[in-house]
Recover the amino acids of this structure.
């Protein structure tokens, strides 16, 4: 028996109490799920449900630099390996964000759609960089940081997506060339600040990009067995995301 909200929802779906058939997944667009469970609007479960990877945005909503800074601020509150806090963040809005869109790839599992659809492109990005040579622990920090920022975005009424498929060369140019003289991390200075000199970098190394904006997409989670296809798909304008039901090792 699941002892948490999402687990119970999945069980309800499985037993057909909420809906019938494979497509009767868990709607994430509204707060209906959380209301049904009597949860506060922004309970963690509800934030997690609404935190779907979004590939279509409302172009009339222009994300501001202040909003991106608020999202980036969560990084002052999260765990970090050896507390080295090697991640740095470059917010992009306006023309700079519009130009960057051609350097990202969305919806690799749905190549025929060529996402994002014209007019629904993100208008804000955060390039997540490291000031130390990336290693396993940097990657763990990266995951914690990315998910924390996405949850903050949802908490603010926005949405986002992790983007691993981006042009690293272009991102490197942006984060290193846009620096005011003297602000770019220097290998020697970084080496003195705590981590081994072999790990220090001259400049910033982009690891991942987040897109941020107001979602126009409809999502539905789909509980699956681990042997079933994990690929997300779209039907009738709904983006279905299969999620494995059984995770606990017995
Ligand atoms: C590390 C990481 C990298 C990702 N890179 C991309 C990407 O380059 N393009 C994309 O469209 N989605 C990307 N995604 C989003 C995943 O496709 C998405 O998380 C998955 O389909 C599940 O959907 P959900 O996030 O709504 O649960 C990435 C997700 C993660 C965690």
């Amino acid at each position: 028996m699941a002892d948490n909200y999402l687990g119970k929802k999945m069980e309800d779906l499985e037993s057909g109490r909420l809906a019938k058939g494979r497509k009767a997944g868990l709607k994430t667009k509204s707060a209906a799920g959380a209301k049904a469970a009597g949860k506060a609007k922004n309970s963690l479960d509800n934030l997690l449900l609404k935190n779907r990877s979004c590939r279509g945005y409302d172009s009339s909503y222009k994300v501001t630099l202040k909003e991106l800074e608020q999202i980036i601020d969560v990084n002052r509150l999260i765990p970090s390996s050896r507390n080295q806090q090697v991640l740095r963040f470059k917010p992009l809005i306006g023309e700079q964000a519009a130009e960057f869109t051609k350097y990202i790839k969305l919806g690799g599992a749905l190549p025929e759609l060529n996402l994002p659809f014209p007019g629904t492109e993100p208008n804000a990005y955060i390039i997540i960089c490291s000031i130390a040579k990336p290693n396993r622990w940097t990657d763990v920090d990266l995951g914690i940081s990315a998910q924390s920022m996405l949850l903050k975005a949802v908490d603010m009424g926005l949405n986002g997506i992790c983007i691993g498929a981006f042009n690293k060369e272009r991102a490197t140019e942006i984060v290193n060339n846009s620096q005011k003289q003297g602000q770019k991390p220097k290998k020697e200075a970084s080496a003195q600040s705590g981590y081994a000199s072999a790990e220090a970098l001259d400049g910033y190394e982009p690891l991942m990009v987040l897109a941020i904006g107001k979602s126009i997409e409809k999502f539905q989670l789909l509980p699956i067995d681990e042997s079933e296809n994990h690929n997300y798909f779209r039907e009738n304008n709904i983006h279905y995301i299969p999620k494995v039901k059984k995770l606990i090792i017995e």
